[in-house]
Amino acid sequence: MKVEDVKKICVMGAGLMGNGIAQVCAQAGYEVTMRDIEDRFVENGLNTIKKNLSRGVTKGKMTQEQMNQVVNRIKGTTDLKAAAFNADVVIEAIIENRDLKRKVFEELDEICKPECIFASNTSSISITDMASATKRPEKFIGMHFFNPVPVMRLVEIIKGYDTSEETYEFIDELSKKLGKETVLVNEAPGFAVNRLLLPFLLEAIFTLQEGVTTVEDLDKAISLGLNHPMGPLTLLDFVGLDTALFIADYMYSEFQDSKYRAPTLLRKMVRAGHFGRKSGKGFYDYTKKPPEPHQFR
Ligand code: 3HC
Known about the structure:
Blueprint: E1 8-12, H1 16-27, E2 31-35, H2 39-58, H3 64-72, E3 74-77, H4 80-84, E4 89-92, H5 98-111, E5 117-120, H6 127-131, E6 140-144, E7 154-159, H7 165-177, E8 181-186, H8 193-209, H9 215-226, H10 232-239, H11 241-255, H12 264-271
Parallel strand pairs: 1-2, 1-4, 2-3, 4-5, 5-6, 7-8
Antiparallel strand pairs: 6-7
Bound molecules: 3-hydroxybutanoyl-coenzyme A.
Residues 52, 55, 59, 61, 123, 146-148, 150-152, 194, 229-230, 235, 239, 243, 293-294 line the site of 3-hydroxybutanoyl-coenzyme A.
């Protein structure tokens, strides 16, 4: 299949990443279905997209009419068959659970047309492993977006063991149509970005856990001392502590290397349901006044 023939993109998952991916696909002119397992997740995803686009209208970056056209291109649904039917590309952004992802791809393999390309937005799970749940491993690839998807310019493209060159070139071109820059990575746990990011984020939590400094001062130190847009603890709250813990555990199990060992504090916070922004509490309390990411800069 050629990129110019793509009409419909199915995004699996309406969460933090899923709704961002659906938004950029619709903004690029594609017909999008965004599927999640419950109506309230679909509604939340659609509302987030509308809120983000409205900000663009207020700032004069698009007209209300253009916003309406983008919104109308996105159909939210809980119906897997309806979402995937006749899709040219599926981009999966469901929770980071290997068994669940394999199960979803197995089902999609039955529903989707044979030429449909399968891409996963996993942050670390093996592309080869997920691809082996389907009968189209050559059409299976990693397409790793960054949060917030409409703003972050990179897509990390990951080739699995059987991914064809044709599929890679197709996804590279599609990513560029979505307004993104790309890098090609051969499959390895955490790919390239999270391989470097995770030890940094985990070390920030160890630093806090050992009482070296406070939440605010650590974020201030990194924001001002290294010129990062967000301190590491703000970034952890932004990414989701549950997601960070999942990636750390996965990388630790794959590499058996202590640089991916999760600090007890992170595990405790996740067990307590403090996932960061999305749950209202993490290193900061978002039920009160949320900290501005750029508060130190
Ligand atoms: N969704 C959509 N757009 C958003 C947004 C969001 N959640 N948050 C901010 N924006 C937009 C704003 O509308 C604004 O747009 P404009 O330039 O067109 O007016 C632009 O982003 C800048 O926003 P602000 O001026 O409000 O704030 P900042 O300048 O502080 O930028 C930020 C906000 C872009 C989030 C910045 O703090 C940042 O870059 N933070 C780091 C983000 C990061 O590292 N992401 C990667 C995480 S790792 C990951 O995703 C991988 C995974 O596998 C773990």
